[in-house]
Fold each of these.
Amino acid sequence: MAEACKHPAVRVVSRTEDSEFVECVQCGEVFDSEEFEDMRIEESLRDGEEDKE
Ligand SMILES: [Zn+2]
C-alpha cells in the first residue's frame, strides 16, 4: 500500500566526493541527501504555516 512516508529517520548508505546518499530506515527508499534536505525544508515550511495563528 502506498502510504506516504515522511522519512523521519535516515542513515547514510553511500558517500562520494560530491554527494551523499541516505536511506530511509522506515521505507528503505534511497535518495541524495541534498534532495532529502529539500524535502525537509518544504515540510518545515508547510508545518510553519499550519502553526500560524
Ligand atoms: Zn521513508
Amino acid sequence: MMLIAQITDFHVGRVIETTAGSIDLYQRLLEVVEHINRLETRPDLVVVTGDISNHGNLEDYARTKIALDSLQMPYLIVPGNHDHRQRVRDVFDEHRYLHNGSEFLHYCIEDQPVRLVALDTLNPGHHTGKLCDERLDWLTQTLAAQPERPTLVFMHHPPAAVQYPYMDAMNCENGDRMAEIISANPQVQAVCCGHVHRDAIVNWANTLLFVSGSSAFSYALHMGEVPDIDPLFEPGICRLFFWSTETGLVSHLTMVGNYPEGITEGVPTPPGGDTEA
Ligand SMILES: [Fe+2]
Ligand SMILES: [Fe+2]
C-alpha cells in the first residue's frame, strides 16, 4: 500500500492584499508543510505539482526548499508555468531525478508500489502548458515499458477542460493527443494536476483526472465567461492518494487550517435504531 500527498501552486514570493490584510504566500507554504507533518496517517511521499514560486527566482526557490526539506517524508518536484527549469534544477540539485539529460523535467519513479510518472508541461513565456512531440513520445515509451504496473501521472496543467472557461483557456496544448496515449494504457489509475486553483475531477481518457486546488489560494468558481479573476482565501488544499492491491486508488481531500471540533460522545444512534454506529 502507499499514501501520497499532492500539494500544488504555492506561488512563493507573492504577497496578496485582501479585505483581511496582506497575506504572504510563503506563510501558507509553511502551514501546509506543518499540516502534512501532522496528518494522522503519514504519507509515504509528497508530490509538488508546480507553480512553486511566483517569479521563478533563486531566492524564492531557496526558501521554498528550506520549507519543503522540513517535510518528514521525501518529496518530488513537478514544474508549472511560473517555474524556471534551470533554477529548479540548480536549487533542488540533490533531487537527482531532475538531472535526466533532457531539456524537460520529466521522470519516472520506479521504486514505489505505484509507478509515478511526472510530466513537464512548462512552455516558457506562456501561462498555457504544452506537450510537444518529444514529451508525448517520452510518455508513450515510459508507459509502454511497464504496462502491468499501476501508475499515477502527475503534471501541472490539466490536459482537459474543467468547465472553468477562464482557466481552461490556459490549460495544456495537445491534451487530446495525451488522451489517446492514456486511453491505451489502462494501468494509469489517475492523472493528477494543479494550475486551476480549484479542485475538480473529470472522467477523462478512460481514467480519472484529478485537478487539485492550490495549497496557498483559490479562485472563486466561475463556470461562465468572466473578464478577470481574483484570489480567494479558501482553505489550502492537500489531496491524498491511497493505493493498495485490495482497494485500488482512493483519494481524499484535507484542508489546511484549524477548525472547530465538535465535543460529543460519538455518533448518535439513528432514529428507530438501538445500536451504536
Ligand atoms: Fe498556479
Ligand atoms: Fe499554473
Amino acid sequence: MKLHLRCKWNAAAMLLAAILSAPLLANDNRLIAEYDRHIGPELAPYVALLEREDGIPSIIGFINESIPFNAPVILKIGAEDGPLFDPQTNEIWMPVEFLAEIDRRFTSANVVETQEELDDVVLDVVMHTLLHEVAHAIIAQFSIPTLGKEEDAADNLANVLLLEYVESGNYITLNAAEMFALEDEAVDTYESADFWDEHSLDIQRYYTTICHVYGAYPDEHAELVDEEKLSAERAETCLEEYATISYDWLRVLEQISN
Ligand SMILES: [Zn+2]
C-alpha cells in the first residue's frame, strides 16, 4: 500500500466552490460536528485522531466548501449506532468504534507498516464514509432522483468528490476500497440477508470503487488492470462509467447550489 500525503485539498475545494454558487458559502446550512463527551477512555486515541487538524476539521471544511445543504446537518461523533444518516433528524451518526474497526481490519491484514500510515488510512476511510453519508443527506434534503440503489449513488458521490477535488484522492479512494475488501474477507458464507441488504455486497463495492479510480486515473493506475482486479475488458468500460457518474453528480451539485 502506498503512503500518500494528506490535507492538500484546499486548492481543489476552492475550485469546486467556485464552480458551485457563492451563496452556499454564506448560509448557515452547514455540516456541524458534535462530540459525545461520554466516549469511553479506550476510544480516546481515536477521538484524538479525529480532532487532528487533518481529521474532522479538514474533512468538514472540505464538505462545507463542496456540498450545499438546505438545512443544518449535525455530525454526531460518538453515536451509538452507524455510520448512518437519519433523515428525520438531519443527523449523521459516526460511532468512534467504527474507527477501532477500521484499525482492527487493516492491522490484522498486515497491509500497513507504521502507526502514521495506519492513522492516515483510518482517516481516509472515515472521510469516504462521511462523504457517503453526506450524499444520503442531500438526496433526502433536495429530493434528488437516484434511479437505482441509493447506496450505490452515495458511494459514487464519495468517489467523485475524492477523485475530482482532493489531492491524492485516488489513494484515499483506494484505501476506502481496501476497507470493503477486508470486510468481504471476513465473510465466510453469504446469507440471504447479504443479498437483500440495501447495500451492494462489500466485494462489489470494492470492485466498483477501484473501477472508478481507474476510470478517473487510467494512466496512473494501470496496475488495477489485472485479472485479480479489473479485467482489461472491464477496465475499458470503467472509463465511460466514471465519466458518466462524475458528470451526473457534478451537474446535480451545480443544480442544487443554484
Ligand atoms: Zn449508505
Amino acid sequence: MSTNKLKVAVIGLGNIGKVVATNLVKGNREVILASSKLEDANALAQQLGGLAKAVEVSAAIKEADIVVLAVWFSTMQELFKQYATELQGKLIVDPSNPIAPDGNGGFKKIIGADESAGQIISELLPKGAKLAKALGTLGAASLASAAFQKPEAAVQFFATDDNTINTTIEELIKDNGFEPVRIGGINQSIRIEVFGDLHEFGALGKTITRKEFKQPV
Ligand SMILES: NC(=O)c1ccc[n+]([C@@H]2O[C@H](COP(=O)([O-])OP(=O)(O)OC[C@H]3O[C@@H](n4cnc5c(N)ncnc54)[C@H](OP(=O)(O)O)[C@@H]3O)[C@@H](O)[C@H]2O)c1
C-alpha cells in the first residue's frame, strides 16, 4: 500500500464496481473491495494485486473515507438502513441510475420523469454523510475503454451540494482515468443519470473530452 490519499471502498463488484476498482488500481490508488459475497471481493483483489484488498461490507465502510456504492438504486437504500452507523460522516459516491428492465430488452425509469436518483438518495443519507453523484455517467464498457484515454482524457461529470468535497471527488475521478467536470448541485443530478442530457445513455450518447464540452460550468 503506497499512497496517503483518502481511503476508498468500492461496495458492489458487478459491471460498474469492477471497472471502478480496476481503474483506481491503474491510477495507482489503493482500494478496499466488498460485495455481497466475500469470495467475489477476494477474487478481484487477487486479480488487481497489492493496491487492492477484500473485506466484508461493514469493515470496508468503517475503514474507508470515500464509499463508492456501486449497487442498484434500491440496494443503496437498503444499505443505508443496514449500515446506517458505519456510513455516518462518510463521503458517499452514488453512480446509480433509477432504472429497471422494461421487458422489451431496454430499460425504463422507475421514479418520476422529473425525479433523479441523486435527489432521492440525498434525502435518505445517513447522519453526517456527504454525497457526490459520480462515476455513473458512462456505461461500464466506456468506463473501462475510455479510462486514461490519450492525448485528452474523457470527461466524467459529477454533482454535489457540498463544495468542500469537490477536490476529493475530482481526485477520485482523475484516479479513475477521467477529467472531472462538476455540473452543479444534486438538483442537477438528473442530467448525468441515464436518459439525461449529459449521460452516455441519454442525449449525450458518447464520451467527450473537456474541449468538446462547450457548456459553462
Ligand atoms: N452497468 C452500467 O453500464 C452502469 C452505468 C452507469 C451506472 N450504473 C449504475 O451502477 C449501479 C451498479 O450497476 P451494475 O451494472 O454494476 O450492477 P450489477 O452488475 O448487478 O452489480 C451490482 C453489484 O452489487 C452487489 N450487491 C448486491 N447487493 C449487495 C449488498 N447488499 N451488499 C453489497 N453488495 C451487493 C452485487 O453482488 P451479487 O451479484 O452477489 O448480488 C453486484 O456485485 C446501478 O445503480 C446502475 O444503475 C450502471
